[in-house]
């Protein structure tokens, strides 16, 4: 595998992270997962715009260089026709301590893998009880390298033989899934939890809102009982959500709205 590391394309085995890198020691960094379709990374403008917003929030300077060209270079070098790229940006190596250095040297790593992006026919989920999304934190609005809440929720789902987990906000409202945004169809309207309730401003989420005319709405967990359809969105696709905590969503099979979203 070829990776892009701090300005150069190289073999994966040649890339070495400094043991003092704050991305490793403190999860002080950001990342973007980007779909590759037909050999081309998609929605790059939206992904890089979100990266810039995240960098502003945590006070991290983006590295010099053409990130679009670097992403396309990794896709081409690994012959990825369909798959995913991951861009990881950390604050870089620094001495011990929580306060960032005055003049950080950021670390940039881009990797890529080929994979089938065909969505599953249906996802069964649980509502996580082990953790919640902190909608009051500015970090809930950016994509940081600290994914431990999602990891805990995914482990809980796996223990219950489920495919994914839905996370509630601290107020007890639906926020998102472990690694995806949530949409419900209620009375013919497509709705999704607002950013203020802990939903990450997902790139695919924004595309679906635009394509379907979906609206943001605070959703209590019992909204799942009234939904005719539900689905999960991430940069890598749209997955029908057919069951939560053993209770079917609507008829328990993918419906017309999720099919429309997938086509759009």
Walkthrough of the structure:
With 264 residues, this protein is α+β, with helices and mostly antiparallel strands. It has two domains: 2-114, D-amino Acid Aminotransferase, Chain A, domain 1 (2-Layer Sandwich), CATH 3.30.470; 123-263, D-amino Acid Aminotransferase, Chain A, domain 2 (Alpha-Beta Barrel), CATH 3.20.10.10. Helices cover 25% and strands 30% of the residues. It contains seven helices and 15 strands. The chain has helices spanning 22-26, 44-58, 67-77, 148-159, 203-212, 223-226, 256-263; strands at residues 2-5, 8-11, 29-37, 40-41, 82-90, 107-114, 123-127, 164-168, 174-177, 181-186, 189-192, 215-216, 229-234, 237-244, 247-248. Strands 7, 8, 9, 10, 11, 12, 13, 14 and 15 form a nine-stranded mixed β-sheet that branches. Strands 2-1-6-5-3-4 form a six-stranded antiparallel β-sheet. A hairpin with a 2-residue loop joins strand 10 and strand 11. It is globular. The two termini are 32 Å apart. 39% of the residues are buried. The mean pLDDT is 97.
Task: Report the C-alpha radius of gyration, rounded.
Answer: 19 Å
CATH class value of the largest domain: Alpha Beta
Tally of separate domains:
2
Q: What is the molecular shape? A: globular
Q: Which strand-content bin applies to the residues?
A: 25-35%
The CATH H-level superfamily of the largest domain is D-amino Acid Aminotransferase, subunit A, domain 2
CATH architecture of the largest domain, by name, is Alpha-Beta Barrel
Helix fraction bin: 10-25%
Helix count, DSSP H or I runs of 4 or more residues: 7
Q: Give the SSE order as H and E letters.
A: EEHEEHHEEEHEEEEHEHEEEH
